[in-house]
Specification:
heterodimer; A: 208 residues; alpha/beta; D-Maltodextrin-Binding Protein, domain 2; 2 domains; six-stranded mixed beta sheet; five-stranded mixed beta sheet; 8 helices; 11 strands; elongated; B: 409 residues; alpha+beta; BirA Bifunctional Protein, domain 2; Rossmann fold; nine-stranded mixed beta sheet; 17 strands; histidine biosynthesis (chain B); catalytic activity, acting on a protein (chain B); HisRS-like_core (chain B); histidine-tRNA ligase activity (chain B); ATP phosphoribosyltransferase regulatory subunit (chain B)
Chain lengths: 208, 409
């Protein structure tokens, strides 16, 4: 049977997915705690796993470099990738929110400045509301932006809200909930249906 | 000799073009065997034409130009619409094209032009016509040497009929379509619940994304959610087309996908797209558009599809398909004193259809082990092949020797 390639987001999602897969009886002997390998196989070589950066998982899958990917909804939304999104692994739950200083009130007809790591998601959200915005794309410590006047608000992932609170920010609005999803390349779904469906069903069983 | 960086890239560009040419020749040949005639449309189209008809290319994606009279034109963003507009045929007409189309999207800003090779079949709206067009797509993919590909077959009417019974806003419809498009089962259920549709209608819509795979199974599933006469007819149409495809012997390449929604709203019947195992996006898309012509005052039914040639080139390169490199047949090296004789011989050999390169020996060191070489020097006239060397006295003799060698090859 043809091999399927699975792209996993390095870090926690990968660990959680691997332990799910181990539950379904798939073992990855080459994978150990100290291993730095980025590519490894299961026992019968039917699954090839590649470790990639989370933001790149949708790209790998959309381009067909991987048949299946497991990655957070945040990265799927931001990538605008044209893929199938077939399963919610119900891990890594958090949400996308708009946050800012509670006492900050920009004037009504002013363009809002939004600092975020996720420009596409921010744009889409404010477009829906009909609010013109300007994006400041940052790569980390987004919470800082409203504090030093770089932006009116931020759009970011909120898990516990601790970081926000400690920096004097609060959630103003929730955009959507996020969790780890299984995505599939559209061509693989058509040309490797059997293997892909078998893998998904296996994972579904492990989730139950 | 001066070196340009370009010359290092030149090779790959030449190869890329040769591969395209081979593809294009395959298209031309195969499309012709099904009775299609080649046409072209203007590179510039009226912006207003695209603006006024519904359900076509996204206006933001079109590349606009303004001519000297202030008219807004667009670079041909698709070929189907101009063909549907120009077509005045009242009986069957089969047309094909291989043309560049121009679009700009936010996601793929660097890729503004792409080549499409497509066909349009006007005049017949029978399931047999649908099947013939799909078979043409499959036949062409096989010609190109692809073995692992699937054609997803769907119907524009199935989802439309179902959704007509639901009272939802345009915004909600768009969201729903995105969910169906990405088979997002996770979010579709809460979304539909929030809209508050009747349970049986909601269940039916929820099932659509997974109405996918083996045609017989999907047809059985689809029968369960049929709610009125028009949906029944749509399903009958799909079955009729599939039956013809089975008789063509291509059932292996077909899967049904009732969750298939094309961005072009003008499709009215069967829609389909083709996937190769190595490319994540559809390499061909098409469908029936019986009502598009009405917007231009002609009512002839039509079906068509187009290949994305760039994706196919990419797929062939990924598979490591090599271009048959065309080597020169003979190289003529001559010395200045023999220039006249050598160049005239070259002309005559080229006239015979042979590929000839000539070099003045002072200028260049020719080092080609595989190609036969003709030497014109002061003292001798020699034809050297890998096997042996002949001397020749006249151009006539050279031509006949060369042709004999070529023949042997």
């Amino acid at each position: 049977m043809e091999q399927i390639t699975l792209a996993l987001a390095k870090g926690r999602p990968a660990k959680q997915t691997i332990s799910l897969l181990e539950k379904t009886g798939e073992h990855f002997p080459e994978l150990t705690e100290e291993s730095r390998k980025l590519v490894f196989h299961n026992l019968d070589q039917s699954i090839k796993v590649i470790f990639v950066k989370a933001v790149d998982v949708p790209t790998y899958v959309e381009k067909g470099a991987a048949d299946i990917g497991i990655v957070g909804k945040d990265n799927i939304l931001e990538s605008l990738a044209d893929i199938y999104e077939l399963l919610d692994l119900k891990i890594g739950k958090c949400k996308f929110s708009v946050a800012g200083k509670a006492d900050h009130h920009p004037s009504d007809n002013q363009k809002l400045t939004i600092a975020t790591k996720y420009p596409n998601i921010a744009k889409k959200h404010f477009k829906k509301k009909g609010q013109p915005i300007e994006i400041v794309k940052l790569n980390g410590s987004v919470e800082l932006a409203p504090l030093i006047g770089l932006a009116d608000y931020i759009v970011d992932i909120v898990e516990t809200g601790n970081t926000l609170r400690e920096n004097g920010l609060s959630v103003l609005e929730d955009i959507e909930t996020i969790s780890t999803r299984l995505i599939v390349n559209k061509a693989s779904f058509a040309t490797k249906s059997t293997q892909v469906n078998q893998f998904i069903n296996q994972l579904k069983l492990a989730l139950e | 000799m001066q070196k340009y960086i370009l010359s290092q890239n030149k090779n790959s560009n030449v190869e890329d073009f040769q591969m395209r040419e081979q593809l294009i020749n395959t298209f031309k040949h195969r499309f012709t065997t099904y009775g299609y005639k080649q046409v072209r449309t203007s590179t510039f189209e009226q912006y207003d034409m695209y603006g006024s008809i519904t359900g076509t290319v996204n206006k933001d994606e079109m590349i606009k130009v303004i001519d000297s009279s202030g008219q807004v034109l667009v670079l041909r963003p698709d070929v189907t619409i101009p063909l549907a507009r120009m077509n005045r045929a009242t009986t069957d007409q089969r047309l094909f094209y291989i043309l560049d189309v121009f679009r700009q999207s936010i996601e793929q800003n660097e890729q503004k032009e792409s080549t499409q090779a497509g066909v349009e079949f006007f005049g017949d709206n029978s399931p047999e016509a649908d099947a013939e067009v799909i078979v043409l797509a499959i036949h062409t993919l096989k010609d190109l040497g692809f073995t692992n590909f699937k054609i997803e077959l769907g119907h524009a009417g199935f989802f439309k009929e179902l959704i007509q019974q639901a009272d939802i806003s345009q915004n909600q419809l768009e969201t729903l379509q995105t969910y169906i498009h990405s088979k997002n089962l996770v979010e579709i259920e809460p979304f539909l619940k929030a809209i508050g549709l009747a349970d049986d209608l909601r269940n039916a819509i929820q099932l659509i994304p997974m109405m996918y795979g083996n045609p017989a199974d999907v047809i059985d599933e689809a029968k369960k959610i049929i709610r009125n006469e028009s949906m029944k007819q749509v399903l009958q149409n799909i079955i009729a087309v599939y039956d013809v495809l089975v008789d063509y012997g291509v059932a292996d390449s077909i899967v049904l996908n009732l969750g298939l929604i094309n961005n072009m709203d003008y499709y009215s019947g069967i829609i389909f797209q083709g996937f190769l195992d190595s490319i994540g996006k559809p390499v061909l898309m098409g469908g029936r558009y019986d009502h598009l012509g009405k917007q231009f005052g002609n009512t002839i039914p039509a079906i068509g599809f187009a290949f994305e040639v760039d994706y196919l080139v990419h797929a062939l390169q990924q598979q490591g398909k090599e271009i048959v490199e065309i080597e020169p047949d003979f190289i003529i090296k001559y010395d200045k004193t023999k220039q006249k004789a050598a160049l005239q011989a070259a002309y005559r050999l080229r006239n015979e259809g042979l590929q000839i390169l000539t070099y003045l020996v002072d200028n260049v060191e020719v080092n080609d082990a595989t190609t036969a070489i003709v030497n014109y020097t002061k003292d001798e006239q020699q034809l050297i092949t890998q096997i042996k060397s002949h001397t020749f006295a006249s151009a006539d003799e050279l031509v006949s020797q060369c042709l004999a060698i070529k023949e042997e090859k």
